[in-house]
């Protein structure tokens, strides 16, 4: 049950618009307000069922639950536009990569803050979303219900959020690259493109379902069941091993996770700078 009358989505871009669509379609009687910079973004948000406006401050003032979905480095500018006196008693969920609960708490004084990491599979209701809270958890059920409109939710300690970002947040892009590569290999071997992409998607979906259905087997067991001695699979696996593909994929997740942590540090510095400037302006105008 979602106990919110009005939800603001600040930054109706790629992930923001998927959230808007899910909220508009799946929640009855909830007003969704969306913000963006360009006319196109606002127009798109309106088409998805939101009240689309340019003013972030107004959107926050008129909502009790706010989702921040601008790029991490646009967060200081967003703060400048909202002012820091609008957040008291609001519930705020950031989906920005890297930006920590501590930075959010500092910037959004008086708000109850959550950090969530969904992914673009939310488009088909299959996001794997990790969520971390700052301790009070007063509106945990509401936040959970909100992200369940996008798929599955996992409540985790904040220390897992960057790794989650590197694995599941970025994951659709990594899997898409692998799909593309496998299909191109099939095309190189003579299969037509259309069939190649269909086959790869079928194999991917089927393998995920199989692994889930046989819940106690390790992926390596499935690999061994497929790889007949001296057969086709082991020939292919030999290439993966000799080219270090598994190690590369492990490093890919590590690097993506590391980047999330770096973004957190960089954004925190910029937010502190912006808040200091904003406070100076307030003092000056007294
Ligand atoms: N893309 C993904 O797969 C995922 C992204 N994320 C996180 O979500 C956030 C958004 O990413 P994504 O959707 O890809 O990025 P987009 O660039 O598609 O969306 C960001 C949106 O923010 C808007 N925006 C920027 N500045 C302001 C502002 N001052 N006021 C109002 N709106 C503003 C932009 O408006 P305009 O279009 O008009 O310029 C844009 O529509 C990022 O922090 C990212 O880390 C999290 C999970 C997955
Ligand atoms: O690439 C990014 O930074 C964002 C976060 C997760 C997916 N996209």
UniProtKB/TrEMBL annotation:
<feature type="domain" description="Pyrroline-5-carboxylate reductase dimerisation">
    <location>
        <begin position="158"/>
        <end position="262"/>
    </location>
</feature>
<dbReference type="InterPro" id="IPR008927">
    <property type="entry name" value="6-PGluconate_DH-like_C_sf"/>
</dbReference>
<dbReference type="InterPro" id="IPR029036">
    <property type="entry name" value="P5CR_dimer"/>
</dbReference>
<keyword id="KW-0963">Cytoplasm</keyword>
<keyword id="KW-0641">Proline biosynthesis</keyword>
<protein>
    <recommendedName>
        <fullName>Pyrroline-5-carboxylate reductase</fullName>
        <ecNumber>1.5.1.2</ecNumber>
    </recommendedName>
</protein>
<dbReference type="GO" id="GO:0055129">
    <property type="term" value="P:L-proline biosynthetic process"/>
</dbReference>
<dbReference type="InterPro" id="IPR036291">
    <property type="entry name" value="NAD(P)-bd_dom_sf"/>
</dbReference>
<dbReference type="InterPro" id="IPR028939">
    <property type="entry name" value="P5C_Rdtase_cat_N"/>
</dbReference>
<comment type="similarity">
    <text>Belongs to the pyrroline-5-carboxylate reductase family.</text>
</comment>
<keyword id="KW-0028">Amino-acid biosynthesis</keyword>
<keyword id="KW-0560">Oxidoreductase</keyword>
<dbReference type="Pfam" id="PF03807">
    <property type="entry name" value="F420_oxidored"/>
</dbReference>
<comment type="function">
    <text>Catalyzes the reduction of 1-pyrroline-5-carboxylate (PCA) to L-proline.</text>
</comment>
<dbReference type="GO" id="GO:0004735">
    <property type="term" value="F:pyrroline-5-carboxylate reductase activity"/>
</dbReference>
<dbReference type="Pfam" id="PF14748">
    <property type="entry name" value="P5CR_dimer"/>
</dbReference>
<feature type="domain" description="Pyrroline-5-carboxylate reductase catalytic N-terminal">
    <location>
        <begin position="7"/>
        <end position="98"/>
    </location>
</feature>
<comment type="pathway">
    <text>Amino-acid biosynthesis; L-proline biosynthesis; L-proline from L-glutamate 5-semialdehyde: step 1/1.</text>
</comment>
<feature type="binding site">
    <location>
        <position position="56"/>
    </location>
    <ligand>
        <name>NADPH</name>
    </ligand>
</feature>
<keyword id="KW-0521">NADP</keyword>
<dbReference type="InterPro" id="IPR000304">
    <property type="entry name" value="Pyrroline-COOH_reductase"/>
</dbReference>
<dbReference type="GO" id="GO:0005737">
    <property type="term" value="C:cytoplasm"/>
</dbReference>
